[in-house]
Amino acid sequence: MFSRTQNIKLSPIKQIELLASKIPDVVSLAQGVPSFDTPEVIKKSAIKALSRGVVAKYSLTYGLPELRETIEQKLAEDGMYYDFEKEIIATAGSIEAITATLIAIIEPKKNEIILFSPSYTSYAEAVKVAGGKPIFVNLIEGGLALSQSKGWRIDFKSLERKINSKTAAILFCNPNNPTGTIFPKEDLLKIAELAENKKFFILSDEVYKDFIYDFAFPSDGTAGRAFFSLAQIPELRKRVIRIFSLSKAYAMTGWRIGFMHSDEENIKEILKVHDSLVTCAPVISQYAAIAALDFGDKEIEKFRRQYQERRDLICRHLDDLKDFFSYQKPNSSYFIFPKLLPKRDSWQFALDLLEKAHVAVVPGIAFGPSGESHIRMSFGRSEKDINEAMRRIKKFFKYD
Amino acid sequence: MINFFKRVVQFKLKWFAKIYLWRTKPKVIVIAGTIGRHWIKEAVKEVLEDKNFLVRTNKKNFNAEIGLPLSILDLSSGKKSFWQWLKILWLAFKKVAVFSKIKLSPNYLVLEMAINAPENMNYLTSIVKPDVVILTTITMIYAENFENLDEISREYGELAKVLSWNGILILNNDDLRIKELGKYFDGKVITFGFSDGSQYKAVSVSKIADGQKFKIEVKQKEKEILNVKINRFGQHHIYAELVRAIIKDNFSAEG
Hints:
A: three-stranded antiparallel beta sheet, 13 helices, B: nine-stranded mixed beta sheet
């Protein structure tokens, strides 16, 4: 009984949130939920769709044509050309897109999915749900990443060693959760070369691509807001499956809406799984997504500026605690992944912090083996929460 | 109260737009259909600009009762702000007032039109009479307010009916309902599509790594064949290229 699910764990983020919910007056920097509400323009559009009586029925499995047309136009602005009729699916958030893709591509003899460590905690579980085996490749802390400071960089020697005939795909988050690293173009191209040679898929989850803080790109000498995605290279369209969610960018985590795109050849297979899992993405959220993509750009920029200020705020607090933490300044997303000094068990530390300081953080081990002795803190929370949490952590160390 | 104010704004914008059109007399190209309008609009705009015309298009969603006159007047939306709308009405008045000199008006207005209920098209055509109408395709997108696709089709038929005698009706020959709308217009009708009988017909379509390759057979010119390669995917981009070829052939350059 339950042989498949016995090895699957409830996400440690949710476990921590569950524990935290039982403690009065807790401040949580655990879950990656934006402190903002969904922008008015999006909510109003959803209300309008609700009043028009158009949200009670299923949409096409692919999603509403209006939404997919909007997505196609949006992608084209970023140099990605996909056919809204056959190459784009509206999904119930990014995790449904990822799980549907994994179920579609994992085969008995090709069942290994490469994940970076640290990377988003639910990836490994989604791989197991799909009957696959997660294979971790460490990111090297302190390697030069796409930021002015040192970040986390892919260990290509380790990556090449772990690719074999069973490799079905590599799945990564770019910018990375929990480290906030943007992988440089040359590294992504190296991954693409490996994928072409060894015939595996690239699943690129780009949920945080709108929250980039420092626009100096030392790797290619350019400056600006350009964010490189392998989905921009037409020759790779059969190899790359790109996933995006509106959860973070538009403060819509509860709406469960995202999308994926790839070559028609891949999408038609993934669509079968998507259909059997959810039939279609929530229709009211699809209408909200149209408004988000059409009118949400200014809101995103507002969020981005706020997150940048909060990042700087949390970094200043961590600087005060340099005997207890070292960190790589994140260049994107709204997470920071400080290392615990001295080295210690991250689960135990997170539990102690929760119990004694009433502050919830996620233990680094949740993000893969190399996440041990780190914690993830979200600066997606309000400044007030960040200040209070850090005040309590400072107090905790004083009395630890 | 809000509805009353909205109606006042809508009414005033309609008349300002009509006066603006009367004063500036641009050629109006309307693109309608439930999907596939955007890329056709872009193709039409590009080809006219290549011919040195000054072209204005409507932004996405500026294609119905309020958005359309705003597009014609080249004004933005007041969103939910009462004062902003008052300002917009003042700007609209200034644009069309007899004492004001209209600066650099477009030679062509390329406008998407959207409908979501019966009689919508009658209202939109009471604001603007097109010189060219391009109809893409009819799907069940806006079905909630229509009995069936045939009712949607009749709504688009209104555009064909109000076309000026020397106008052009450009129809997607692959959509049977769109094709049928030719019967409402006695002037020049040009068809495009993949199916036989299309005057601008896409043939030998192949998907390549970085886009699509195809040929356009132009029947009007004793089967002239054009080779096309685009970096986009999907049938709707081929339709856009067919319309691009039609506009190229049927509009002479400015100056």
